[in-house]
């Protein structure tokens, strides 16, 4: 539209100027014919000359004298005078637009320079109806030509864009759809072919992503198959070890001193093997069930966890403290929250016992407008740097020697299922603090697991 305006407006202004100049030229020729005949033309011939020139009157100034050469009755007063001897572009455009918008019949005066210096100036009066009609006709032709050029340009742009941009993009989309239907098939990975640099970079990035994703899917499939095999082996091995543990328990009552000394170590080893099998089976489940949210008092649940660990640490130099308001209730799955707290407290107890020194474990809870915060802290030796790097990763984030790193991973997944977070707040040589944050806002489990 801007191009249309920049083309149409100057063109119509130029057409109007040429039209008026042509009328001045015709009027000059008619006046010269009259002068050549020494004013001996008949009135009919003068009227014919004016009609051919398309004007009403002609005034020619020669030798400082203003002379009315040809005249005819003027149907109405003159409303405007236009001087074309040195017009400005803005003036011509303004007068042209005004003439197009003015629909009433008017009489105007036009002044210009005579052709070939045949006088000082020439002045004519004319009606504007024919001028406006000629301008409209010319404008329509300009608009039609512009429309044709625009259509051809749009067609060329369409086919150019379709060939250079749309077709390669459609190819990328088709490649993505084909890959999505079978991402394990490496034959469906796109091969960059685009000529446009940006599209080729997009294809190369897509190729890299598809290659990595295909490799990850293959690895995931192999790991899934391996996990299924490990789960089956762990199930059968747990049954075998359970039987071995029964016989090992009986060996502790043996009168043979050598057997009595070896039996506790054997029982400990078998217990660890059974624990590994059970942890592997628990982690190998497809997914944890969604939490069953309900309101319950937090203090009794924490007391149960502490009491269980207190019994396990009966002969160990570990103390426990609880700082949970007696009236605090929260909305969560009590069984899953018990497992989370039990894992954290058990890890803290085992870390303190491993040092052989006295230690303390504390569980506290606070409530705010946004949610509940549970703190589990101990005075143990802190977590080693290697354990901190993969703290919540299964089989790689073990916090103690002989651990498998499943407890914290399972605990983090359970808290995440509530829409909350489990993170390491502090760890150094004076102890470790874990923080659990459970939101009060009720989210869909699918959103909470993202």
UniProtKB/TrEMBL annotation:
<dbReference type="InterPro" id="IPR036890">
    <property type="entry name" value="HATPase_C_sf"/>
</dbReference>
<dbReference type="InterPro" id="IPR004358">
    <property type="entry name" value="Sig_transdc_His_kin-like_C"/>
</dbReference>
<feature type="domain" description="Histidine kinase">
    <location>
        <begin position="232"/>
        <end position="442"/>
    </location>
</feature>
<keyword id="KW-1133">Transmembrane helix</keyword>
<dbReference type="InterPro" id="IPR003594">
    <property type="entry name" value="HATPase_dom"/>
</dbReference>
<keyword id="KW-0812">Transmembrane</keyword>
<dbReference type="Pfam" id="PF00512">
    <property type="entry name" value="HisKA"/>
</dbReference>
<dbReference type="InterPro" id="IPR005467">
    <property type="entry name" value="His_kinase_dom"/>
</dbReference>
<dbReference type="InterPro" id="IPR003661">
    <property type="entry name" value="HisK_dim/P_dom"/>
</dbReference>
<keyword id="KW-0808">Transferase</keyword>
<dbReference type="Pfam" id="PF02518">
    <property type="entry name" value="HATPase_c"/>
</dbReference>
<protein>
    <recommendedName>
        <fullName>histidine kinase</fullName>
        <ecNumber>2.7.13.3</ecNumber>
    </recommendedName>
</protein>
<keyword id="KW-0472">Membrane</keyword>
<dbReference type="InterPro" id="IPR036097">
    <property type="entry name" value="HisK_dim/P_sf"/>
</dbReference>
<keyword id="KW-0597">Phosphoprotein</keyword>
<keyword id="KW-0418">Kinase</keyword>
<dbReference type="GO" id="GO:0016301">
    <property type="term" value="F:kinase activity"/>
</dbReference>
<feature type="transmembrane region" description="Helical">
    <location>
        <begin position="138"/>
        <end position="161"/>
    </location>
</feature>
<dbReference type="InterPro" id="IPR050428">
    <property type="entry name" value="TCS_sensor_his_kinase"/>
</dbReference>
